[in-house]
Write a structure and sequence with these properties.
With 327 residues, the chain is α+β, with helices and mostly antiparallel strands. The protein folds into 3 domains: 29-78, no CATH class; 84-209, 2-Layer Sandwich (Tetrahydropterin Synthase, Chain A), CATH 3.30.479.30; 229-305, no CATH class. The chain contains 8 helices and 11 strands. Strands 6, 9, 10 and 11 form a 4-stranded antiparallel beta sheet that branches. Strands 3-2-5 form a 3-stranded antiparallel beta sheet, with no helix packed on it. The longest helix has 70 residues, at 211-280.
Length: 327
């Protein structure tokens, strides 16, 4: 059998550790921690809120700043120039040409009822900035969560005052402006320190369960508008033409009436003038009228032969070979 080795434990002694060295090491470590925690750098787009034992004491601007060592004073950086955003109804994982969105059920915050008792799914984005860091950190508990609750409550109120058609189509821009104005007013009342830059309605649709029926209604509305436009086009083509033709006939009738009236007035004036002349010299005027009338009539007659009543032997005067009619 193998012999068991025996160990001499008498030589094992605890290491010689100096209390003084341990104290120096601890003090040195604390000095390093205090010195390292006594300064900090604030970026250009930020400010730092400094607290002393939890109480606000000052706001540090961008650049190198100093403070009392931790845990006497601590600081919290707040981005005041950066534009932040909150998304409702969806979450963006990666923005770009082909954005990627988080898969999840956000219907609870986006499903809303309109004023005509229909349901719509509203997805929107709120872009904002922190204008008052002190208010943002200390005036409201969980300011970011409160800000989201304000946006959701206001959006539901504004959507609930409008019809489904307004929310989905023509009223989207007006809704965005109304929500932006009211959200900013509430943020100022609650002293959240937030300034709303813009509210964008990303997508507004009916719920998936009723979307086929909604599409059918839209198609019917489009068909109705199409037929109305066709009727208006036909109306604009026929009615102006008929109106123009009627106006033309009216103008022709007016012209004809004016012509007849002027002609009658002329004839009456001519008759009056003749009568006045006739009244001055009746015999002369009668003869003149007779001669003018005979001149007009005889100029239209072919061959003329004028004889006296007691004339005889006039037969040779007629030329029967010409086949003309004797008058």
């Amino acid at each position: 059998m193998a012999q068991q080795k025996e160990f001499d434990l008498s030589n094992l002694r605890p290491p010689n550790i100096s209390i003084r060295k341990i104290t120096i090491a601890i003090v040195g470590f604390l000095i390093i921690v205090f010195v390292y925690s006594s300064w900090f750098i604030v970026d250009r787009e930020e400010v730092a809120i400094v607290q002393r034992f939890g109480k606000y004491v000052r706001t540090a601007e961008n650049g190198l700043n100093f403070k009392l060592p931790y845990p006497i004073e601590k600081y919290t950086k707040v981005p005041i120039e950066e534009q932040l955003k909150e998304e409702f109804g969806f979450r963006t994982l990666r923005a770009g040409i082909r954005s990627e969105y988080e898969q999840g059920d956000f219907l609870e915050e986006s499903l809303m009822m309109t004023g005509d008792l229909n349901l719509v799914v509203v997805e929107w984005i709120v872009q904002y900035r922190i204008k008052e860091p002190y208010q943002f950190l200390f005036k409201v508990r969980e300011a970011q969560r409160t800000f989201r609750d304000i946006n959701e409550a206001v959006m539901r109120e504004i959507v609930g005052d409008r019809t489904e058609n307004e929310v989905i189509t023509v009223g989207r821009q007006e809704i965005a402006f109304a929500v932006e104005e009211k959200v900013q007013a509430l943020c100022d009342i609650y002293e959240t320190g937030i300034r709303v830059d813009q509210i964008i309605l990303q997508d507004v649709n009916p719920p998936d369960e009723v979307r086929p029926s909604f599409n059918e209604v839209n198609e019917a509305e489009q068909e109705k508008d199409k037929l109305i436009n066709q009727a208006k086009t036909e109306y604009n083509r026929v009615i102006p033409k008929a109106s123009g033709e009627a106006q033309r006939q009216i103008e022709e009738a007016r012209g004809y009436a004016l012509e007849r009236v002027n002609q009658a007035k002329g004839e009456a004036s001519r008759f009056t003038s003749l009568y006045n002349e006739y009244a001055k010299a009746r015999e002369v005027t009668r003869r003149r009228i007779y001669l003018e009338t005979m001149n007009e009539i005889l100029s239209k007659v072919g061959k003329k032969l004028i004889t006296e009543e007691d004339a005889s032997g006039i037969l040779p005067l007629f030329n029967f070979n010409e086949g003309g009619q004797v008058k």
